[in-house]
């Protein structure tokens, strides 16, 4: 196995791990959401988990976690796209700009999706 094949194999394995981590985090956020409590009133500006051991987890922590996962997924997918799609080596600037735009769009999409999900679960106000 060449080094390029090892890098590609590692990239795909890390993508699978990140997708598993994203699904697990989404399920965890769903389970600790205040919407699971029947006495919760959604319009009372009391977002955040109502579980006692989760009281110390603020909105900043949820947003930081969403940021880290979005950054990791977008970076991993951009590197996989970069490996699969061999750009012309003569236009390195165009290749760099294309990958930067790809990363920015992926990061924005993942971050926006994460924030909307956290808002729907009333973990952030």
Explained architecture:
With 125 residues, this protein is mainly α. The chain has one domain. It has three helices and no strands. It has helices spanning 3-32, 59-84, 92-120. Helix 1 runs antiparallel to helix 2 (59-84) and helix 2 runs antiparallel to helix 3 (92-120). It is elongated, with a radius of gyration of 19 Å. The mean pLDDT is 89.
Fold topology:
Elements: H1 3-32, H2 59-84, H3 92-120
Question: Which characteristics define this entry?
Answer:
125 residues, single chain
Q: Quick summary of this structure?
A:
Helix content is 68%, strand content 0%. The chain has 125 residues and is mostly helical. α2 (59-84) packs antiparallel against α3 (92-120).
The helix/strand order is HHH
Work out the strand percent.
under 5%
Counting structural domains, the number is 1
Regions with little confidence, pLDDT below 50 for 5+ residues: none
The average pLDDT is 89
Number of strands: 0
What is the SS-derived class?
A: mainly alpha
The helical percent reads 55-70%
Give the termini separation: 50 Å
Largest sheet: none
Rg estimate, integer Å: 19 Å
Overall shape = elongated
Number of helices, counting only DSSP H or I runs of 4 residues or more: 3
Keywords: Membrane, Transmembrane, Transmembrane helix
């Amino acid at each position: 196995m060449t080094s390029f094949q090892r890098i590609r194999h590692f990239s795909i394995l890390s993508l699978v791990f990140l997708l598993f981590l994203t699904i697990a985090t989404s399920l965890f956020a769903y389970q600790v959401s205040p919407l699971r409590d029947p006495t919760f009133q959604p319009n009372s500006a009391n977002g955040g988990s109502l579980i006692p051991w989760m009281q110390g987890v603020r909105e900043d922590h949820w947003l930081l976690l969403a940021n880290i996962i979005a950054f990791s997924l977008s970076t991993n997918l951009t590197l996989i796209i970069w490996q699969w799609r061999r750009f012309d080596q003569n236009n390195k600037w165009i290749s760099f700009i294309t990958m930067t735009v790809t990363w920015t769009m992926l990061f924005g999409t993942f971050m926006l999706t994460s924030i909307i999900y956290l808002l729907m679960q009333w973990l952030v106000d």
